[in-house]
Amino acid sequence: MKVNPNFLKKVKKYGAFDISKCFNCGNCTAVCPLSAEDASFPRKMIRYAQVGAQKEIESSLDPWLCYYCGECSDTCPRQAYPGEFMMTLRRYLIAKYDITGISGFFYRFPWIQNILVAGIFAFSLGAFAVYKGDFQELAAKIELAFPVYVTLAIAAYVFTFYRKTILDKAKKILISFDFSNIKETLIHGLTQKNFSGCSDTDRTRWIAHLLVMSGYTLTLVISNLHLLEPLKKHYGISDFATFLVFYAAFAILAGGFIMMYRRAKKKAQSSSFSHSTDWLFVVMLFLIGFTTAVVHISNMILGPQDPRVEMLYKINIAVEVAWIIIIVPFTKWIHIFFRPMAVYLRNLKKEEAQGKLFSMPIPGLK
Ligand code: SF4
Ligand code: SF4
């Protein structure tokens, strides 16, 4: 096993934990409700980090199968915070899987990310303010560009994740077409089902995640399909679009509020060690929900021709531009893909062990 003696020092830049205190009792793995025979964590990951087994960690799915129940940290006799260590590994891996290296830079220098978000927001707003054309048309073009940009960012991450966890080890392309695996992956992606696997399920945290996920997905659908034209149409309370906007805004605001409240109170292990990028993430989500709702309500009350509606719409789109350019490709947002993908790849490894899999050797890769 190749080791990197500086690995732990590198990971420590991404979060607050102290596994130097760990004396390998194994308590954390014994109490972890999500640890299993084929995915035993967190002690194995801690051991790898202690000896500098960087490659083993970077090719492991285990960090993505941990849902930060916090039971390991609660019961650790040495206060090594294994739950926070797993969270820190996820930040480290996001940075590692980002081919641009920007994510790691933002994690290490979060204030630069804050400045960039504020700068892109201010710049976009300034550009929108002086724009003399039809802003509704411009907003439609911007919203059409979002999915292209996001798809490219996700594709790069997903490929690196697959390469590190499967390709580099198996030396061949492995794909599962098993319906039950695909179904399980979809269920995990849509419901974040593993939250319920924690022995003492923290329902508030799960509900907050579900609300944010559903509200945000709906917002993406609304904007990417360009279902709203607040400067052209006058919406009423009984319109279907109003229902969609109100649900999306409510879900994001309620979920975002719960997340911010929990982080401020620091009651649960999962919210005790917030990284400043976590704060930026929830604050921006909250702003998206808030500005979307405000634009729609002002359209309903004032009508599409009112200049105040246009001004609010410009603020809403400027928030979304900053979110899409800086937050989506370079922060924990990618969790929503990596978690279900880890479930899929874990099942794929099981199928491979049973010889049930479609595989394709890559010429020249040994
Ligand atoms: S419970 Fe604490 S001391 Fe024991 S192995 Fe886990 S992290 Fe180390
Ligand atoms: S935080 Fe929860 S899921 Fe993660 S390793 Fe600890 S007990 Fe297991």
Topology (elements, then pairings):
Layout: H1 7-11, H2 27-31, H3 43-51, H4 54-58, H5 62-65, H6 71-75, H7 82-97, H8 102-108, H9 110-130, H10 135-170, E1 172-175, H11 179-191, H12 203-224, H13 240-265, H14 276-302, H15 307-330, H16 335-353, E2 358-361
The structure holds iron/sulfur cluster (2 copies).
Main sheet summary: 2 strands, antiparallel
Bin the helical content.
55-70%
Structure class: mainly alpha
Dominant shape? globular
Residue share in β-strands: under 5%
Task: State the strand order across the main sheet.
Answer: 1-2
Low-confidence stretches: none
Bound compounds = iron/sulfur cluster
Q: How many individual β-strands?
A: 2
What pattern of helices and strands is seen along the backbone?
HHHHHHHHHHEHHHHHHE
Helices, by number, come to: 16
What is the CA-based Rg, rounded? Answer: 22 Å
User: What is the mean predicted local confidence, pLDDT?
Assistant: 88
**Total count of domains:** 2
Distance between the termini: 17 Å
Question: How do you describe this structure in short?
Answer:
It contains 16 helices and two strands. The chain has helices at residues 7-11, 27-31, 43-51, 54-58, 62-65, 71-75, 82-97, 102-108, 110-130, 135-170, 179-191, 203-224, 240-265, 276-302, 307-330, 335-353, and strands spanning 172-175, 358-361.
Q: Can you describe what's shown?
A:
The protein has 366 residues and is mostly helical. The chain has two domains: 7-97, Alpha-helical ferredoxin (Fumarate Reductase Iron-sulfur Protein, Chain B, domain 2, Orthogonal Bundle); 102-352, no CATH class. 67% of the residues lie in helices and 2% in strands. It contains 16 helices and two strands. The protein has helices spanning 7-11, 27-31, 43-51, 54-58, 62-65, 71-75, 82-97, 102-108, 110-130, 135-170, 179-191, 203-224, 240-265, 276-302, 307-330, 335-353, and strands at 172-175, 358-361. It has a two-stranded antiparallel ribbon with strand order 1-2. α10 (135-170) packs parallel to α15 and α14 (276-302) runs antiparallel to α15 (307-330). The chain is globular, with a radius of gyration of 22 Å. It starts with 6 loop residues before the first helix and ends in a 5-residue tail after the last strand. The mean pLDDT is 88. Bound molecules: iron/sulfur cluster (2 copies).
